[in-house]
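re: ur question from yesterday

yeah so i grabbed the chain u mentioned. its 233 aa long if i counted rite. heres the sequnce exactly as i have it in my notes:
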Amino acid sequence: MAHLLIVEDDDLLRDGLAAQLGQVGHQTTTAANGALAQELLESTRFDGVVLDLGLPLVDGMALLRWIRKRLLALPVLILTARDGVEDRIEGLNAGADDYLTKPFNMAELQARLVAMLRRSRLPAFGGSLELPAGRLRLDATQPLAWLGDEPLELTHREWALLSLLVTNAGQVVGREDVLSAWKADPSDTSDNTNTSSNALEVYVHRLRRKLADSGLSIRNVRGLGYMLETTTP
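ran it thru and got these C-alpha cells back, copy pasting raw so excuse formatting
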C-alpha cells in the first residue's frame, strides 16, 4: 500500500489513526509537531501526508506551504477541526489535495486517502511510466544520482529538476513549478536572479545529454512544461 506520515498533536487520535490505517495495509510514521514532521520529510520518502492544522512549533498551514515548496507532488490531506469555508479555501489554495473536518468517519478518511493516492499516481496523458530497473537512482536529500553504478555529475539545479521529473514521471512538470522550486530552495547557492525560462531550457538541455544512456528522455510538452518518459528500445 502506501507509506503515510501522520502529523497530529493529539496523542490518542494520532495513535488511533496509525493503528487503523496500519490495519488496512498502510505503513505509517507519526509526528506530534510540525518541526518533527519537517525532519522526517527531509530524511524519508512518503507517499502521502495526513496533516492537522493546529500544530505546535510549526503550524500546519506553514508546514503545508513548506511541503509545497520542496515536495511538489507529495499528496496532502488536511484533517482538522477548522470547519469554516475560509479555512477550507485557505488550505486548498495552499496546496492541500483534500480537506476533511473533525469529527470524521474512519471509512470516509480511508476512501479519501485511496482516491488521493490513486490520483497522484495517474499519468497526465494516459500512459504509464516504469523507470528502467536499477538504472537511475537519486538521493532524496542531496544532489547525488547514479546511472547503474556510475555517478551522475549534476549541479544542484539539475538534480532538483531531475527530482521533480522523476517524482512526477509520466506527468507534465510545469516550467513555473521548476522555477519556483529553485527560488524556494535555501540550499541552492546559484544566482537566484537567473531563474528565467531561458535558463531552464539550458538546464534541460544539459540534463538530456547526461541521461542519454539511461533509457529515459525529457519531452518538451509545448506550452505546458516537461515530461520524463522511457525511450523506445
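noticed a couple things. The mean pLDDT is 83. also The longest strand covers residues 216-221.
anyway ttyl
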